[in-house]
Specification:
Layout (H helix, E strand, L loop, with lengths): L7 H9 L3 H12 L3 H14 L7 E7 L5 H15 L4 E6 L1 H6 L4 H6 L1 H4 L4 E4 L7 H17 L4 E7 L4 H6 L4 E7 L11 H6 L2 E5 L6 H15 L13 E3 L8 H16 L3 H28 L1 H16 L4 H13 L2
Parallel strand pairs: 1-4, 1-5, 2-3, 2-4, 5-6, 6-7
This protein binds guanosine-5'-triphosphate and magnesium ion.
């Protein structure tokens, strides 16, 4: 594929026609940090907005090694081969953001799914801060939808803020738990459980089958103590094995049941609307921070104020007020 940019019309036509090479280039454009690319990307996203929104967006999170990628591949193959769906797989990966590398691992792990013509796999962008990566992932979801994918799966590691952001990108948030990992019912994972729409105990196979069933029962009890995210939807706890395939079809039926439950009332639309507003404010925050950090008056006072804060001569609040005053000129 030649380098260089297409026109907005050419990107939009290629994306709409389902041309994967154009879709991939459009995503690269959306992820670009260059100001001229960003302006073009904004136009493209606006152009395709009306074609987007039609997929079922599912977030998949869980601790490192919980089996997210393996489950996504197995579930993706089920969706593509048995149910005739078109599946896009995206990732928001804070560790790759930190290291500046890309998650090659996931691409190689999902080799079988990657070969399916009805699947599209895009690893996490390797540049930028987490908020930016998540914002771009949101736009990538829209591009995939405009390209005809009707299921979008987003993988993220549940170790920090990334799962909070991914929860704001998806309709259904799937949390994976390992049996016997020592974190059951200890409250460590409370924050993540509050985000869950469905809980799956993974690797329920072989020697681990009984432990997984026990964990399922324990989590089912624990979930009763968590404030429900949507009234009328109590979080199901299921077991899955990506090795034997047990529970995967049932898991997908549960995802579809969640969709129907939300769509039978105002919850589905209300959630998407609240997400739009959430991303409006993330975009404003990011742009304000960019302008603030580049502002000459701020740059001029920053070293002196940071030094004063570091040495304890000035409180952080006081210094912040001075820098903000320098920024706004008041
Ligand atoms: N027995 C068994 N092993 C599994 C299953 N799913 C995944 N594994 C193994 O668990 C390990 C981690 O799986 P991954 O799918 O890479 O886990 P992940 O959550 O994506 O990990 P990170 O992306 O590194 O956070 C791999 O060695 C898998 O082969 C399963 O259902 N059963
Ligand atoms: Mg993974």
């Amino acid at each position: 594929m030649a380098r260089g940019r297409l026109s907005v019309e050419a990107y939009a036509a290629g994306v709409r026609a389902g041309e994967r090479a154009v879709l991939a280039r459009a995503i690269t454009l959306v992820e670009s940090q260059r100001a001229d690319d960003q302006a073009l990307a904004r136009e493209l996203v606006a152009e395709l907005q009306a074609d987007a929104g039609g997929s079922l967006r599912v977030g998949v999170t869980g601790s490192p090694g919980a089996g997210k990628s393996t489950l996504i591949e197995a579930l993706g193959l089920h969706l593509v081969r048995d149910l005739g769906r078109r599946v896009a797989v995206l990732a928001v990966d804070p560790s790759s953001v930190r290291s500046g590398g890309s998650i090659l691992g996931d691409k190689t792990r999902m080799q079988e799914l990657a070969r399916e013509p009805r699947a599209f796999i895009r690893p996490s962008p390797s540049l930028g801060e987490l908020g930016g990566v998540a914002r771009h992932t949101r736009e990538t979801v829209l591009l995939c939808e405009a390209s005809g994918f009707d299921v979008v799966l987003v993988e993220t590691v549940g170790v920090g803020q990334s799962e909070v952001m991914v929860a704001q990108l998806v309709d259904c948030f799937l949390v994976l738990m390992l049996a016997g990992a020592g974190d059951e019912l200890q409250g460590i994972k409370r924050g993540i459980l509050e985000l869950a729409d469905i809980l799956a105990i993974t690797k329920a196979d072989g020697d681990n089958t009984a432990a997984a069933e026990r964990a399922r029962a324990e989590y089912a009890l624990a979930m009763r103590l968590i404030r429900p995210k949507h009234p009328g939807w109590s979080v199901p706890v299921v077991t899955t094995s990506s090795v034997t395939g047990a529970g995967l079809a049932a898991l997908w039926q549960t995802v579809e049941r969640h969709r129907l439950a939300l769509q039978s009332g105002p919850a589905w639309q209300a959630q998407r609307e609240a997400q739009h507003v959430y991303w409006l404010w993330r975009a404003i925050e990011a742009e304000l921070m960019r302008r603030f950090a580049a502002d000459p008056a701020v740059l001029a006072r920053r070293p002196e104020l940071e030094a004063a804060v570091r040495s304890g001569r000035l409180s952080p609040d006081h210094a912040a007020a001075e820098l903000l005053a320098a920024f706004t000129g008041r």
